[in-house]
Design brief:
Layout (H helix, E strand, L loop, with lengths): L9 E8 L8 E2 L4 E10 L5 E8 L2 E2 L8 E2 L5 E3 L2 E2 L14 E8 L13 E5 L5 E2 L3 E3 L3 E9 L5 E2 L2 E2 L4 E10 L5 E8 L8
Antiparallel strand pairs: 1-3, 2-6, 3-4, 4-5, 7-12, 8-11, 9-10, 9-13, 13-16, 14-15, 16-17
Length: about 190
Amino acid sequence: FASVPFKEVGEYYYVVTEEKGTLGGITYDQTKYDIKVVVKDNLNGTLTASVVSVNGKEAGKVAFVNTYKANVNASVVLDAQKDLQGRDWKDSDQFTFELYTADENYNVVENAEVFKTLTVTDETVKAFEEITYDTVGTYYYVMKETNGGQRINGISYSTEVYKIEVTVTDNYNGTLSAATVIKNSNDEVVS
C-alpha cells in the first residue's frame, strides 16, 4: 500500500480485504482485516502513526493466501475404424476394439481389465466414450481388436496394436488441455 499521511492525533480504523480478480482457477482469499492505527504527537512538530492491532489482536502480519487449481478438465475422444477387405459388410458384422491402460513402455498388466470398449458395425469411424482428465500428467493406453490374430468364420482379425500417449498440461488460466499421439505397431505416428 502507499503511505497514508496523517495530520491529526487520534485512532483510525481501516478494513483491508482482497479484491476478487478474474484469473481462471484462482481462489481468492476472503479474509477481512480490521486495522487500528494510533497517531501520536511526538511533541516536536511531528506525528508518529503505528498499527496497534489487527482483528483486535496485537499488530501482526496482514497476508492474503490465494490458491490455484485448474477447474476445467481436459478430455480426449479416441476413435477406431474397421477396414474389412475381401467382401462387403453384412448387417450381422460386428467388431470390437478394446482400450487398456498401460505403462510408459505400453505394457498392459497381465489379466488387466478392459478400460473401454467400442463395437463397430460398419466401415465408418466410431468413437470410444470420452476420457476426462483432472490431473496433469502423461497417460498411456493400448488399443487393439478383440480376437486379434484369429481367423473366425473366414475373417482374419487384425493383429495391429496402437500405442496412445495423452499428455495433459495446465494452461495456468484455470483450464487443462490434452494432446494425443497415436502410433501403430511399427512406432509410426498415425495421429
